[in-house]
C-alpha cells in the first residue's frame, strides 16, 4: 500500500493491475479448443488370411472332419456378441443416468420447483419474480440498513416489508438466520425497533419457525419491526491512540477481519472474514490455482514473517462467481469455505456484510488494508498496512479521463483522483470497509486498477452490495 498498498510473486501475475495498459472493452471472452494428444494405446494389426484353398492335381484329397478349433471359433463369435450386448447395455444405462442428472440437477444455479427452469444464484430473492410459480421470491428475507431491520418479500405487492415483532422470539430468529445463510451457532439476538410511522406497504408475519413462511398483514399491534443479528460482526477492540504517528502500519486488532491467503507458502491475496467458516476475496486470485488443497488462510497476524511459523487454516472449497470475466474483471468475487471454524478473538473477528439500504454515497470515507507492495512493481510489505480513501461516483470513474466506460454496476471506485493513495499488487481480494452506526461494513473487495496510486486511476473494487444474493445463496447451499 502506498500510503499505497499491492506483492507480485514470481509465478503469479496479478491480472487485476496493469500499469499503462489499455483494458479491453466489455465482451464475452472466447474459448479455445483443446488439442487431443496422440493415442498411446497400441493398435491391433490383423494377420493376413489365406482365402484360397490350393488343390494339387492327382488323387482327390480327403476333406478333414471338423476339429475342436472350429467349435472354439464359433464360441468366440458368441462371446463377441455377448460382450457387445453388455457394452451396449452399460452405455444405455449410463445415458439414462446422465439424462436424469442433467434434467433433475442444475449445473449452474438452482431449479424452480421440481421441473422448472434453472436460475442463477443472484436472481433469487432479488425482488423480481423469475420462476413461473414465484419460488425464487417466496420465503425471502433480508436485513435492511445499519439497524439490521428484518424484511420479508411480499409476492402479492412485490415489495419488501418489515417483519412485525408481535409474538417474535429467538427461535424464530435462529430459523430465519439459517434461512438467510448463517449458522445457528453464530446467532446473536433478536430485538424490536419501534417504527415512527406505519409501514406504507404493510407488514409481514411469520407463521411457523419450521418453514419460516411469512404472510402479508396490514396491521402490527406493537407497531415495531424485528431487528436481527445473525453474527457478531463489525466490531473491534482497537485503541486508535496506539496508531503509529505519521505512518501506515496497522496496529494489532485494527482490522481483525483481514486475512492473508497463502498459495504454496507465499502470500498471494487478501480476504475478509464474514463468518467463522467463510472468507470473501477476489475471483482473479484463483486464475492460476483454484484447488482448495493448495491454499491456507492466516488470520490474526500482522506480519508475514509470523505466518511462516503457523499452519494457517485449510480450505474446504473455493467458489468463484460463475460469471467472472478474466478479461474485464467483471464479477470479481469469490468465497473460500474453511474446513474448521476460526475462533474469534480481539484480533480475529468478522466484518459486516453491507445490508440493503445502507447509506453509501460518493465521498463516503473508507479504509483499505493489506500486505501489498508500497510502489508499483515492488515486493510485498512484510507488515499489514492501512490507508484511508473515499468512494468515487461511478459516473466520474467511468468518464473519459478516468476509466472511460470500463466500470460496471458490479464495481465500485475508491481512492483519490490526484493519486498518492491506492491499493497495489498483493492487496487483491482484501477489504474496502466503512464505519456506520458504530460498526464496520464490507463495501468492496480489492479487484483491479491501472498502476498504483496513479493520477486519475483510482482503485476498483468488487461491489459487495450487488453480490449479496450470490453470497448468501452459496452459504445456504453449503
TrEMBL record:
Gene Ontology annotations for the cellular component aspect, listed alphabetically: membrane
Keywords: Disulfide bond, Glycoprotein, Hydrolase, Membrane, Protease, Serine protease, Transmembrane, Transmembrane helix
Classification via Pfam families: SRCR_2, Trypsin
Record protein name field: Uncharacterized protein
Molecular function, one GO term: serine-type endopeptidase activity
Disulfide-bond pairs as recorded: 106-118, 125-140
Gene: TMPRSS2
Residue span(s) of domain Peptidase S1: 244-476
InterPro entries to which the protein is assigned, alphabetical: LDL_receptor-like_sf, LDrepeatLR_classA_rpt, Peptidase_S1_PA, Peptidase_S1_PA_chymotrypsin, Peptidase_S1A, SRCR, SRCR-like_dom_sf, Trypsin_dom
Keyword DNA damage (UniProt): no
Positions of transmembrane segments: 80-102
Source organism per UniProt: Denticeps clupeoides
Domain of life of the organism encoding this protein: Eukaryota
GO biological process: proteolysis
Domain SRCR: 150-231
Keyword Transferase: no
